[in-house]
Amino acid sequence: MSDNPKSFNLSPELHSYMLAHGTAPDAIQQGLIEATSKLGGISVMQIAPEQGALMTMLTQLIGATRAIEVGTFTGYSALCIARGLPKDGQLVCCDISDEWTSVGVPFWEKAGVRDRIDLRIAPALETLQGIKEDDGFDLAFIDADKPSYQAYVEELLRLVRPGGLILVDNVLWGGNVINAENNEDNTLAIRAFNEKIAKDPRVDCVMLAISDGLTFLRVI
What is the pLDDT of residues 46-61, one digit of tens each? Predict the structure, then answer.
């Protein structure tokens, strides 16, 4: 379990209390957290435990049978989503790194969800554009390169059914979305995405301060 809270306005003590009073990572999830931490500083790309628990619950609540994620990293989010799917459910994972995703595969196997996960190593836009059927997915999760967020959403709006859910991670970007002195490429990309998607008539949009900011898009 991570010692450093990723959610805003939480002390380490309050973060620990919150995790202790919700569904905490089990031994398999904790093993993946620890395996990812060995990668060093890049391990901060892993979603927070409370976000993973929320994503499992959301998958179950909307009755998802088909899901897709853009950006798998070491597979913690995939593990959480796959656990919320029925045994015959499917999660398509889009990533470009064999090295990082290979960290998660043994834990997917231990959790008994490897057969639910279709891992596709290729640029995500190519993978998304190669999926021809429309309205086939119930749930999508985006946690990848920030300048491509809008392009990913455009493809997912074709693939996710009306009433389905698209989750978009890191939309607060450590608070830098309101830091006028930070105009790095990723910050500018997230700001532009947030402004555009909040006005998009194709979705209902709610942004929450969960972890590093999580936007919920309900496809209309």
Answer: 999 999 999 999 999 9
CA–CA separation, 128 and 92 (whole Å): 10
Type of residue numbered 9: N
Q: Which two tokens stand for residue 10?
A: 């939480």
User: Length of the chain in residues, anyone?
Assistant: 220
Q: Three-class SS of residue 219? A: strand
Decide: 82 and 113 in contact? Cβ < 8 Å. Answer: yes
Is the CB of residue 216 less than 8 Å from the CB of residue 165? yes
Q: List pLDDT tens digits, range 129-150.
A: 999 877 799 999 999 999 999 9
Nearest CA-CA partner of 110 in 129, 83, 132, 89: 83
Q: What pTM value is reported for the model?
A: 0.94
63 vs 60: CA distance, rounded Å: 5
Nearest to 33 by CA among 13, 6, 59: 6
The pLDDT of residue 1 = 46
What digits encode the pLDDT tens for the residues 196-208?
999 999 999 999 9
Residue for token digits 């897709």? Answer: 68
Q: Using alpha carbons, select from 167, 205, 203 the residue that is nearest to residue 59.
A: 167
153's CB contacts (< 8 A; 6+ apart) are 142, 166, 168, 193, 197, 217
The mean per-residue pLDDT over the stretch 64-75 comes to: 98
Above 70 in pLDDT, residue 8? no
CATH architecture of the domain covering 12-219: 3-Layer(aba) Sandwich (3.40)
